[in-house]
Every structure is written in structure tokens, then in C-alpha cells.
Amino acid sequence: MTDATTLLQRVSELEAGALSQIDAAPTTDALEEVRVAVLGRKAELPNLLRGVSELPPQERGQVGKAANITRGAIERRLAERKEQLAGAEEAKRLAGDRLDLTLPGSPQLHDGALHIITSTWRDIEDVFLGLGFSVLSGREVETAHYNFDALNHSPTHPARADTDTFYVNDDVLLRTHTSPMQVRAMEIYDPPLYVVIPGRVYRRDYDATHLPQFHQVEGLAVDKGITLADLKGTLMAFARAIFGGELAIRLRPHFFPFTEPSVEIDVACFNCSDGWIGTERCPVCRGEQWLEILGAGEVDPNVLRAVQRDVYHPEAVQGFAFGMGIERIAMLRNDIPDLRLYIENDVRFLEQLR
Ligand code: DAH
Hints:
Strand content: 15-25%
Low-confidence stretches: none
CATH class of the largest domain: Alpha Beta
Radius of gyration: 44 Å
Largest sheet: 7 strands, mixed
Distance between the termini: 95 Å
Mean pLDDT: 90
Strand order of the largest sheet: 1-4-5-9-8-7-6
Shape: rod-shaped
Number of helices: 12
CATH topology of the largest domain: BirA Bifunctional Protein, domain 2
Bound molecules: 3,4-dihydroxyphenylalanine
Structural class: alpha+beta
């Protein structure tokens, strides 16, 4: 049996209990649990309030009013506590996420840049594109036929030794130079042919002056009536574009199996011919006054014959060829003392050549 006094008493107990639970809730999640426990559908207080309807009518007003005040007090306290806890939780989250935008940036960051081999490769290509040459590329895994036989190497030529050349099998190897593209280019394209072929090459060598993998640019010009004078004019334009100034070049007799006559080409030392006033000998050419930059020559008739096409018959056309090492050109141009600097990727080196 419900009577007003017991009901009011229980209501005030529940209020006191609810308020102290609210004040003790440590987090917004815990507070939500308290809310469900004191005001939720299954909680005692709302159910008691429903019992008000069973009271005699003259008592209902007093108890109903007290009950509403209690409910209002609990709801207000819940809202206050929620705001308090949410504020503290937000502040804690922000403190954990803090990023101080006023701190200085990392001094260890480095901008990317082209490797000196890549930029030299592109500079060389640009010069020959400007002279009317086209750029081709070739395969790095070659046959002995294109790497040696078609280039007029005798069967006993020392470069064929497996101590010098990386073989895949008896007939297949990693190309030792870009020259095999001479014959491949002539097989594909008709004359007149003016091409340069940059790319990677491989040899079994590794010390301060040799890398097992390095880069060359091959050049080939085949046309009617090509002479050594065309070779000289072309390479003089190249040397001046790459090393700067009105530099002279000189041709020294040499031997390559695939050119006849063959020459090595030197460029006047750009350091001493460009006003070197030091009292010691020039550090770039070591006092020689000339720098060897590449090998070249007139295409040997045997190479033209190896193409096996009438349009390349030695009576029909003549040509010149040349081959240079990109590492060597970059070393001369940038005063780089040791080939191994190219592959060590030390940022102190890379940054100087940016
Ligand atoms: N293939 C030669 C080498 O690797 C370089 C070379 C010399 C290429 C003379 C040529 C040339 O085209 O005519 O050492």
C-alpha cells in the first residue's frame, strides 16, 4: 500500500543517492551509466513516480510536485557534470595530440636532384640532338655476335675472355660496350643514319678507375662520302658544348677492331687553356694540356658487310663512329677524383653536383 509519507521519504533518499553517484562518476561513459540507472526505464524513481496515481487525490499534488522537483534536480546535476567531464576529456585529448608548429623544421631534409650520371647523359644527348642526331637505346643482354663478331673482333680477341666479360652462356653476355647497337641500328634503319645510343655496359673490373657497370654513349653516322673531317667537326662541336669555350681537339692514331682508321680524341684541357694561372701543374690534365675523351674512327668495311644489306655496302656508304664513357666525361667536367663516388650515394658528394 502506497502512502504519501513513505513515498516522499523514498524519493528524497533516491535523490541523495543519485546526486552523490553523479558527482562521483569519473568519466562521461560512467556518467551515462549512472543516468540509465537513476532515470532509465527500469530505474526505481520513475517507477515510484508512476505510483503517485494510486494516492488519494488530495495528496497527489504535493507528492507530484516534490517528485518533479527531484527529477529536475537530478537532470540539472547530470547536465552540469557532463559538461565538466566532457571539457576535461577534450582538454586531455588535445594535450595528447599537441603539435608545436613553431618548432624549426628538420635540418636533415634533402631536396632530390638528378644524379650526375643522369644529368651528364642528358646533356650529351641534347648536344647530339642539336646536331641532328636521333637517340636510340639498346639491350644490355647481348649476343656474342653483335658484341664481338659483327664488330670485326677476331675469334681470339682478349676482350672475349670470361675474365673480362660477364657471360650468360656461350653466346649470350652482358654487353661490354654500346657498339653492338651500330650493327643493330643499320639492320633496322636505312641510311643516311645519324644516331647516338646511350646506355649501361658491363665488364669484370672493379677498382678506383673501373666499375663493373658503367655508361657509354655510342655515336654512328653513315651517309655517302663521310670522312674523318666530318668526325672531327662533329666532335669539336660536341667538346665545345660540353666543356665550354673555343676548345681545340686533336686526333691520335689508335686501334679498334670496328673502325679503320681508328683514333683517340683529346680535347684541349679546359682548365689550363681557360686561363689556369697556378704555379703548379694543372691538376685536371696533370700538365699534359690535353684530355682524352673518347675513341672513334671510320666504320670498318667489315662492320658494314656484317649488316648484310645492299644499302650499307661499303661501296655505297661510309661512316664514322665514336664511343665515350659518361663517367669519364662527368669526371673531367666536374673534377671528380674517384669513380666509386658515383655509386656510394654520399649526400655530401651528391649535393656538390646538384
Ligand atoms: N667500344 C669502345 C670501347 O668500349 C669505344 C669506341 C671506340 C666506340 C671507337 C666506337 C669507336 O664507336 O669508333 O672502348
